[in-house]
Amino acid sequence: MIHMLQSFFFFVGNMFVRREYDIVFYYPTHFNRGENGKNEFFEPFYEICERNDLRYIIFEEPDFEKKTDRNNQAVPFDFPLFLILIFRKIVSLEKFESFQHREWYIAEKLKPLLFRKFRFKNYIVLSNSMLGFFRSIDKEACLYDYQHGVITSSHSGYIRNETAAEHIERNKANVLLYGDGFKDVLCRADKKGYYLDHAFVIGQRIRGNFRNHFAQKSILFSLQFSDPNPILNNKLLEKIVHFFDTYQDFFIDSGITLLLKHHPRFSHDIDDSALFRYPFTHLYKGSLSDALQQCSLHLTFHSTTTFEAAAEGIPTLLWENDLLDPRFFIDDYRYPLGIFDESSLIQKIKEYLSSERKYLEEAKKVFMWFQHFYSPLDETKFLKLMKE
Known about the structure:
Blueprint lengths: L1 H12 L5 E10 L14 H9 L4 E6 L13 E2 L1 H13 L8 H16 L3 E9 L4 H7 L4 E5 L12 E2 L2 E2 L1 H4 L4 E4 L2 H10 L5 H4 E3 L16 E5 L7 H25 L2 E5 L19 E3 L4 H6 L1 E6 L4 H7 L4 E4 L8 H4 L7 E2 L1 H13 L1 H18 L5 H9 L1
Parallel strand pairs: 1-2, 1-4, 2-3, 4-5, 5-8, 8-9, 10-11, 10-13, 11-12, 13-14, 14-15
Antiparallel strand pairs: 6-7
């Protein structure tokens, strides 16, 4: 209720108080994943704004169904969202050409009440939230969606029917990307060429840190029993158990430990105890970064932990399978090591165990590959976009 009242007074106040900003930052509260409810995706941008006297404001979209951390620095968007949801209920989508057209209509109706004297030059959002609404609030503002995870050629938030997604193109929105690799993915997938002029690489805060992990005898295995799906998950389990049964002598004789780390969304919809009956397997419950420090290799069906491993100079062995096909790592990302069937996995591990030179050669390959997708945050380029 406190956030709703704060929100009400701020946005109704826009009828009487003139407020002007260089940038509006907008995000749903589930992105508050840092300490004290901080949004770690946007924190570096706030710092840049403060160093360079850019006027900015943060709007935070609530989740009315569950309790989430709130950022005290943000203006709660609770009251506008409440009205928007009412409009979406009572104004039929069938009367409009698209969802975006209805968003424009809703914004036109609410602007005199909530944004009459509110002005902004740039709007930066996570997860494409409220692009249509803010496009209608100011038709001349520059709209940007900042990448918040990996992007593939089939990511519906960016690509549909081999062109830029409707909510991007209709709203003349731009995307801010981590690295040239992700821009390449979008530009290859977009047959109309929208992203050639509307995708900008500005980087991100995370830096790679190449280290020689050859001496480590553990392998991190990113398990992917994620969303509740007992049929799929049991098939994955059977495949893994068969692999362990077939090659258990190799793992034991080589002194290798497999650190099995569950996906954050594992819902325990299957009995995974069969994975831990071997002397060489261990359930790892610590952080990903700590796990990587203990390992020389990463094994997975198609987990994007492949990028985090590459940031440390750790090769990933992508396991060929028809359940969670890793082919997009080759087609979209051009992963340099390829994909391996079960016997090839073992041969590749043997190759690494016997040759530090070969291991380091391929570790450097994956580290360079990582840098193509995740570049350092470019403050100069960010400022240029915001000011021009």
